[in-house]
Amino acid sequence: MQAGWVVPFLLVLAGRAAAQDHRLAERLDPPTAAAVQRVVDSAAHEGLPTEPLIQKALEGGTLGASGDRIVYAVGALHGQLGRARQALGARAGEADLTAAAGALRAGVSPASLQRLQSLRGDRPLVVPIAVLTDLVADGVSPDEATRSVLDLAREGRPDEEFMALRAGRGGPAATEPGGRPPLRPAADPPVDR
Fold first, then answer.
1. How far apart are CA 123 and CA 131, in angstroms?
2. pTM, to two decimals
3. Which of 69, 117, 122, 160 has the fewest CB neighbours in a 10 Å radius?
């Protein structure tokens, strides 16, 4: 009587093994690959991009990170992708969500991402979000970087101008001494008079 459950159980296990991304099985130890696959499956169930999670795990494997560290990093990215989805909504594509997850990790607020999205309309967000993230990673305060990127978005500027902000190319009169276009400072709090 107990043997009756063995075949269905083995079929379920075989299905799960077949569903596992072969790259994980090839590059990670079995317990780590299985743990990462659970996170990937959870993300897929939530409608989140899975390829960034797989790439994060493979990167960890390439760098020789421990299994625990890989699983932690993949789980953290899963959380960031979820928060990016909350900020940008269900219509956001994989590239926008992945960029937004990086921005959140860098310290950009979800409200800033929402505002950027509202200003850009249906235009892709990858370039403005990447520029925003790079500016913050380079030490520009999140408020100052956000203000500069939002100002370009508000003016309907093309992606090239966002990239020029990041690269410091904005024409000789528009650059600061370091070659970067001037960043707009964060708004001062209102003063009651």
1. 15
2. 0.74
3. 122
Query: Within 10 A of 3 (CB to CB), how many other CB atoms are there?
Result: 6
Q: In whole angstroms, give the CA distance from residue 57 to residue 22.
A: 12
DSSP string, 156-184: T--HHHHHHHHHT-S-GGG--TTSPPPPP
State the Cα torsion 115-109-100-55 to the nearest 10°.
180
Q: What pLDDT digit, counting tens, does each position of 123-160 carry?
A: 999 999 999 999 999 999 999 999 999 999 999 999 99
Closest to 38 measured CA to CA, from 66, 28, 6, 96: 28
Q: At 179, which amino acid appears?
A: G
- pLDDT tens-digit readout, 17-26: 335 789 999 9
For 22, the enclosing helix (H) or strand (E) is helix 22-27
What would the two tokens of residue 51 be? 């390829």
User: Residue 17: helix, strand or coil by DSSP?
Assistant: helix
